[in-house]
Each structure stands twice: as structure tokens, then as C-alpha cells.
Design a protein that fits this description.
One of its GO terms (cellular component) is transcription factor TFIID complex. Residues 25-49 are annotated as: Disordered. By secondary structure, the chain is mostly helical. It has helices at residues 16-21, 32-39, 55-64, 73-96, 105-111, 116-145. The longest helix is centred in the C-terminal third of the chain and has 30 residues, at 116-145.
Length: 146
């Protein structure tokens, strides 16, 4: 009989090499930990494992945009690396403008002003944040004010 891919459960890692090669011998394929060591741990470039901050939220977003309910861990990791890289770059740029060494909302707005989609989204989020602050204040005054 031919070699088959072992069932590893929906919540566990599905190594891409097994699917690409069509073999799943435990002797031939590394375990999840060995594979992570070979790859190098993402954005740290081989400095060990990095804690994944956005994995669960990214999985939900990917599912919402049409991916599988349990997307490949490699796909989630790549997206997370891109997100962290974007946030890091934007933070460094924001720290270099305005007040040195501080990130302010105005700095972020200034950096994305030429991207209409991002600018519109930030404007919407800032407006909603102000509305929520006003609603909380009104709620607190109604309950604790008089």
C-alpha cells in the first residue's frame, strides 16, 4: 500500500512538506518542533521561537475572508510576520516625526494621509472612539453623577 498522510487533528499543525511530497513517514519527516528550528522562527531570523501575538485573530479573519476554518499555520505565520513588520516600520517612522521618541495619533494620521483607504479607516476608528468616550461618560454620569 502507498503511504498516506496521518490524521493529526484539525487544531494541530499540517506541515506543508507532507502535503507537497505526498509522504508521511515519521522517520522521514521532522516533528513540528524540528521543523520550526529549521525554518528559523520567523521575524527573529533564527533567534529562537517568537511568541505569536495575532494568530487567533488572524485565523478568524482569514476564515471570514473565505479561507478554511483552520488555515495552515504557515499562512497565519506569514501574515503575522507581515503585520508585525508593518507595525514596526510605521512605529519607527512615527517616532522620527513629530516629537522625537513618542508616537502620537497625529503622527500615524500624517504617515497614512496619502493612502485613501487607510486614511478613511483611521478616520472612522477615531470618530467611533470619540463617540464611545462620550457614551461612556454619559453612562457614568447617569449612574454615578447625581
Amino acid at each position: 500500500m502507498g503511504k498516506s498522510i496521518p490524521y493529526r487533528g484539525a487544531s494541530q499543525q499540517r506541515p506543508w512538506r507532507w502535503l507537497a511530497a505526498g509522504v508521511a513517514d515519521e522517520e522521514e519527516n521532522p516533528t513540528f518542533e524540528e521543523e520550526n528550528e529549521e525554518i528559523g522562527g520567523g521575524a527573529e531570523g533564527g533567534q529562537g521561537k517568537r511568541k505569536r501575538l495575532f494568530s487567533k485573530a488572524l485565523q478568524c479573519m482569514m476564515y471570514g475572508f473565505g479561507d478554511d476554518h483552520n488555515p495552515y499555520t504557515e499562512s497565519v505565520d506569514i501574515l503575522e510576520d507581515l503585520i508585525i513588520e508593518f507595525i514596526t516600520e510605521m512605529t519607527h517612522k512615527a517616532m522620527s516625526i513629530g516629537r522625537q521618541g513618542r508616537v502620537q495619533v497625529e503622527d500615524i494620521v500624517f504617515l497614512i494621509r496619502k493612502d485613501p483607504r487607510k486614511f478613511a479607516r483611521v478616520k472612522d476608528l477615531l470618530t467611533m472612539n470619540e463617540e464611545l468616550k462620550r457614551a461612556r461618560k454619559a453612562f457614568d454620569e447617569a449612574n454615578y453623577g447625581s
